[in-house]
Amino acid sequence: MTETHATITPGAPAFPPGRYGRRREPGRRRPLLVWLLAAALVAGLALVTAQLYARYGDPAYDAEVITYADLTDTGVRVDFRVTLPEGGAAVCVLRARSHDGAEVGRDEVAVSARPGARHATAQHRITTTARPFIGEVVRCRPAG
Prior knowledge:
The structure is a single chain. The protein is of the alpha+beta class and 144 residues long. Helix content is 18%, strand content 40%. A three-stranded antiparallel β-sheet has the order 1-2-5, with no helix packed on it. The chain starts with 30 loop residues before the first helix and ends with a strand. Keywords: Membrane, Transmembrane, Transmembrane helix.
């Protein structure tokens, strides 16, 4: 039996019989399988993220600038406070920037807390190549 205008729904393509093989029925959707695969992917990515953060993140080392002062053409003094693990030590990177934002000085400073203390306050003078506008702590990481 061939397809005629009476057997074809309007807008559906008419294919010559036997020319393109057997037409497939629409596939059955499996939404549960898709959701399970998506959940497994999210769980795997969360596990990898947690492991990388535990290995490379420094959540225990936090620094804040108390003040920067003594701005001269050759340097700036930065007073800062570091939160460390109890009795720990850190190396902090300090930098000075000029008014246009260019970095004009950078130093690394070792900071250690007293036994039983979680905070250390330090003061350091950064030598600069031009007049600084601001002194700041870029980051702190574990010493060693």
